[in-house]
Amino acid sequence: MRSEGQHRGLLLRSFALLYVGLLILLPIFAVGVKTFSTSPARVLHELFTPVALASLRLTILTAFAMVAVNVVTGTATAWVLVRYRFPGRKVLDSLVDLPFAIPTVVTGIMLAALYGPRSVVGRVLGRYGIEMVYSRVGIVLALLFVTFPFVVRSVQPVLMAWEKEAEEAAQTLGASPFQVFAKVILPALRPSILTGAALSFSRALGEFGSIVVLAGNIPFKTQVAAVYVYGEMESSNLEGALGVSLALLLFSFLILLLLNLLQRWSHRYE
Amino acid sequence: MSLRLENLTKRFGQTTVVDGVSFSVEKGELTALLGPSGSGKSTLLRMIAGLERPDGGRLWLGGEEITGKAVQKRSLGFVFQNYALFKHLTVERNIAFGLEIRKVPPREIRERVESLLELVKLTDYGKHYPHQLSGGQRQRVALARALAPRPEVLLLDEPFGALDAKVRSSLAQWLREIHSRLGTATLFVTHDQNEAIEISDRIVVINRGRVEQIGGGEEVYDKPSTRFVASFIGNVNILEGFLDKERISFSGVEETLAASGRGGSGPVVILVRPEELSLRKLGESGENLFPGTVQTVSYRGSFFQVEVRVGEMVLRAVEEKRNFHRYEWREGERVGVSLEGWQFFEVPEGHEEIREKLRQLGYIE
Amino acid sequence: MSKGESPRGWGAVLTLGVLLWVFFLILFPFLGILRETAREGWRAAFLTLGTPEALHAFRLTFSITLWAVVLNTLGGTLLAWVLARQKFRGRLWLESLVDLPFAVSPVVAGFMFILLFGPRGWLGPWFESHGIKVVYAFPGMVLATLFVTLPFVAKEILPVLREVGTDQEEAALTLGASPVQVFFRITLPSIRWGLLYGVVLTIARSLGEFGAVLVVSGSIINSTETATVYIHDRFTDFQYAGAFAASLVLAAVSFLVLFIMQSLLKRRSQEER
Fold first, then answer.
1. Which domains does chain C have, with CATH numbers?
2. Under an 8 A CB cutoff, do B98 and C176 touch?
3. Which helix (H) or strand (E) holds B314?
4. How many helices and strands in chain A, by DSSP H and E?
5. What ipTM was predicted for this assembly?
6. How many CB pairs under 8 A join B and C?
7. Which residues of chain A make contact with C68, given a CB cutoff of 8 A?
8. Percent of chain A having pLDDT more than 70?
9. Which of A44, A253, B191, B325 has the greatest number of beta carbons closer than 10 A?
10. In Å, what is the CA distance from A150 to each residue of A154, A207, B326, C1?
11. Distance from CA of A6 to the nearest CA of B (A)
12. Confidence bin at B346 (pLDDT 50/70/90)
């Protein structure tokens, strides 16, 4: 009877492994097979062409710019949502998730419609020399939109579970509100802020839909890595697509590793 | 029907958590499985239920061997330590669960659930969800749920562990009552010796996965067969001494304790229960009488607890009210302490190990 | 948990700042697209939704979503159950692997399937010789969607399964329930809100997935053009009315999804008490 249970367990586990194996491992394996069947040197050569490198550089730069803004606005939003009660708080709380629900192409279309040369906003901004469409600023804007929930949603639960006693203790010891925040609260939030930042960064490295619509596909100017991969595929240059894809996959693995470490770090006092 | 364990053994990796345990629980008997945490008692109970697979030994229910039988088919009721009530089902549906599984007709289920609700005094709570109940109420639902399919044997894992002291003792009494009414063979795990002595017919004392002693409450208390049982059951004074020529001496004390018939020489441990110590006026004479100084006197309701310093030891004595008022011991007073009984153990292991063990059990600080 | 108070002083400034930020970053673009659609003319815009291409695109998106949801709900539940209830070597590896689709760019995800099943891919020629078309066809699009939405159900259920623990399941076993009965009567009810939430997220992502599907679709009109690909293609062809109208439909669905998500979360937190 017992061994029947074990058989059943083994069977279920095999199905689970098959599911992950077919959907995740096999495609990754195919990347490896293709790399070695075309020769790794050729793939590396394609990765180090100036256009490919420029697209990767642009991707990383815009991702960092986005993270810098998101860390501040995301933490502030989480703080406001947890600490204050004001009319519209619940609506604000729901709106935070909107970017997750909305298709990225639609995001791109909306931003293009709002900031495009045909719209009032676009024309006003254009008069001051700010171009959102087919520009790098536009890329950062699109990234800010699609990644907005990450920092908020990783900081918010930590803030909610946070016990005010430590803060009050710091106050009784003579710390000012800003000192309390900088010396007591911020260190406690650091792992969750970093987790949110890593998640946004990871999403930004792979973002495609909103950017391709808003910023287009201009080499050396607005062509990010994912758009470059798509372009190379469209022109049937599989090797070119493969080089940059490998670089992006490597980044993905590194960020996963970082997130695992962060998770361990955030539980270190427990 | 009776439950019989034969050499039951369980290993987790390298450690043997249950080591060749044999005993039986007869129909109508309420048996306590008593031991400190980590003694293997819960694992033993889970093996009986079929939730863990034994690495050795056999299990019998009535005349049938059930060692390899699936949990579902064992006809055992199990009450979990934290109740494990089904959160998404009402009290009624929780109790009905085992009957629904057995495809009992709805009408019978309804009747059975009603009578069980009555038995556990929760008649008005049928439609409530577990989260709307207090700890004691949840405990009773768990019991009713386990009893519903009329099990041959009822197993309870630390049934009162999560409750506060007051609820605990009234529920324990109530369990005793229910048991005498139903007569189901019952085995419950506990680490609380008072609970075990209070309500069970028999106690199986278990330590490090082995049975130390089996017997009635009084027997286990009065005639502990091992040092562990002696120290685990009840409150004790632990005296470390040195045996030589049939006398035991203690550091800082002139007088010695007569230990006739004890040969050899070396460090020993003496366990003395508080009620085995009596306090005398200084100057009275007698065997095994030690002079000391009263350190604290505290009133404990039906008795007084008096702590007396003798040499480097502090002995805790218990004086009945009437006795106490004859002398009115006061702090700082010189008294004689008479040892009227004790348990003697030689010390194969270091004193510190014994102390450490007792410290874990909460007998010394 | 702190109760919170009305913001005063710096707190009020901060609150106002956050509200403005969220308004301009997230809500403003909605107003923008509404205005631009109005300029194209509402009637003209919504007439485009009745064209065969648009209808086909939405129908295709719908069937891909259906496949992805059904398969990933079954697979994700199984996966989470195995991860939570079984101990085996490599379990932690498997668990990290489940996160991978979130970390991989959708374009790269689609590209991986091209490398696997494409005409110049690893297994592609074999499939082709057997007359099975995977990429640039429906199966490939379902596969790509399955890949990007794989973590949702599994990752939502896993923590719930771990938190609920095995006590109730064991209790059901001692009461005579078979493993299958335990799953349907005890395990499933206790994870239902997490499961539903995961399903809603899977639906939202499947409806809106663009990069991965675009790559494996080859965007053939009236054949492999999904709703998002349709929007993209209209937009790049300067057919704004069509792009905006379809975008508005998807945006409306997003709001609906968001609303369901919120109420599910509320239900879940109520039951956990």
1. 59-218 (1.10.3720.10)
2. yes
3. strand B313-320
4. 15, 0
5. 0.89
6. 62
7. none
8. 97
9. B191
10. 6, 14, 77, 22
11. 12
12. low
Query: What is the CB neighbour count within 10 angstroms for residue C111?
Result: 34
Token pair listed for A157 = 């639960």
Please tell me whether residue A158 adopts helix, strand or coil conformation: helix
Q: Which two tokens stand for residue A41?
A: 């040197």
Tokens 């997935």 correspond to: C209
pLDDT, residue B249, reads: 86
CB contact under 8 A, C254 and A101: yes
Q: What is the pLDDT of residues B296-312, one digit of tens each?
A: 887 766 678 888 888 88
- Please name the member of C121, C146, C231 whose beta carbon is closest to the beta carbon of A23: C146
pLDDT at A270: 57
Q: Which of C164, C184, C193 is nearest to B85 (CA)?
A: C164
When CB atoms are compared, the residue of A13, A86, A160 closest to C82 is A13
Cβ–Cβ contact A149 with C under 8 A: no
Alpha helices, DSSP H, located in chain B: 41-49, 91-101, 106-119, 135-147, 165-182, 193-199, 217-222, 227-232, 321-327, 351-361
Is B145 in contact with C173 (Cβ distance < 8 A)? no
Residues of B in contact with C186 (CB under 8 A): 86
Nearest to A106 by CA among C84, C209, B177, C259: C209
Could you give the CA distance from residue C134 to residue B54 in angstroms, rounded to a whole number?
Answer: 51
Burial of B20 from C-beta contacts in 10 A (0-12 / 13-18 / 19+): middle
- Is some CB atom of chain A closer than 8 A to the CB atom of B165? no
Whether the predicted model's global pTM rises above the 0.80 cut: no
What letters, b where the CB count within 10 A reaches 16 and e where it falls short, cover C228-252?
A: bbbbbbbbeeeebbbbbbbbbbbbe
Which of B71, B88, B131 shows the shortest C-beta gap to C173? B71
Q: Judge whether residue B197 has pLDDT over 90.
A: no
pLDDT at C29 over 50: yes
DSSP B364: -
Residues of A in contact with C231 (CB under 8 A): 105-106, 109
Sign of CA dihedral B314, B318, B323, B324: positive
pLDDT-derived band at A109, boundaries 50, 70, 90: very high
**Length of chain A, please?**
270
Q: List the chains bordering chain C where 3 or more Cβ pairs fall under 8 Å.
A: A, B
Asked whether the beta carbons of C60 and C254 are under 8 A apart, the reply is no
Q: Do B53 and A1 count as a contact with CB atoms less than 8 A apart?
A: no
Are A145 and C18 a contacting pair at CB < 8 A?
no
